[in-house]
Design goal:
Length: about 110
């Protein structure tokens, strides 16, 4: 199975069913990585639902389709928020959780 970008909800549900059919828990979340409140909500949900996290896959990225010379500072900052700051915050918030094993790398 492969997904085009962005993955479709039916494709994600198909993947979830395949993974869960072999006895592995699978969750997916849709959120805006430039909104810290959404990151907080998802991280809190994960902390409450699971005792540990084995794998975290970030499949988010943003690209503005204009040229480098035409890109505004606001557009560039939005790309950084989604592609760099958002994943940083997720990892930091989950890593700080007492439910995350401190001896593991995430």
């Amino acid at each position: 199975t492969f997904f085009t970008s962005p993955p479709t909800l039916p494709g994600i549900k198909l993947l979830k069913n395949k993974i869960e059919s072999i006895g592995v828990k699978f969750d997916y979340y849709k959120l805006d990585l430039s909104i810290e409140e959404e990151i907080d909500y998802v991280c809190n949900n994960i902390k409450e639902k699971y005792n540990k996290i084995d794998v975290l896959i970030n499949n988010a990225a943003l690209s503005m389709d204009n040229s480098f010379l035409e890109k505004t500072k606001e557009e560039f900052m939005k790309v950084l928020e989604v592609n760099l700051v958002g994943p940083f915050l997720i990892i930091q918030k989950i890593r700080r959780s007492r439910k995350c094993y401190r001896d593991r790398r995430l």
